[in-house]
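Please go through this protein, sequence plus structure tokens, and consider how the sequence yields the tokens. Keep your notes short.
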Amino acid sequence: MRHYRAAGMQLSRSELDAAYSHATRTAYEAGEEVHRHNLHELIRYLVAHQFNYLHRHGPDNVREHLAGLGDQRHRLAERITAGFAEESAQGLARSRALLKELSRDFKLGVVSNFYGNLQVVLFEAGIRELLQVAIDSKHLRVFKPDERIFTAALKVLDLPHNQVAMVGDSLHKDCAPARKLGMRSIWLRGHHAGPGEHPQARAAAALADHTIDSLDELKELTW
């Protein structure tokens, strides 16, 4: 959101979410070209399709803004891509440091609704070497919250389900299926700027064994 606004495009959360969903669906349906994309190339691909959606279906002010850019539209897309890519790379670097520490005591894995290039992104970030398993939904042809994607990872980890914890930011896609399979569930709660409790707090009480606000808090949990 902030990268779009910094580029002069005033969008609401719901308007950007619609563009994001369109780009995500397009990437899921894309061919093998996306399977080779590194992080920056993937984000460029997604932003391009977000722009296409906003140019056709965005609010009037955004459609007018994009229509008036002409040849500068590509530069604006690259500016937003660079911002997202830098932020994502920094996040992956922080995650790598944490995962390296956790890997001394735990078997680690990733289960992701991704685009066929999860391995490329993880290798580029230096994270794949820390994982016992990395499941990309595009290759398995099963998407969370389908329990089969979790079962595939559990088979590789070769651990009793009650000795495995699923950490995810979606109660529906991560915590609910993990609970159903007998795993522990840890909800990575998103930032909530509004007044009062988080809108998903009640659902979390039923679906999550633990709630954290940052991955670093995993080190503080008693297992």
About this structure: The beta strands are 109-112, 133-136, 165-168, 184-188, 210-212. The mean pLDDT is 93. The chain is about 55% helix and 10% strand.
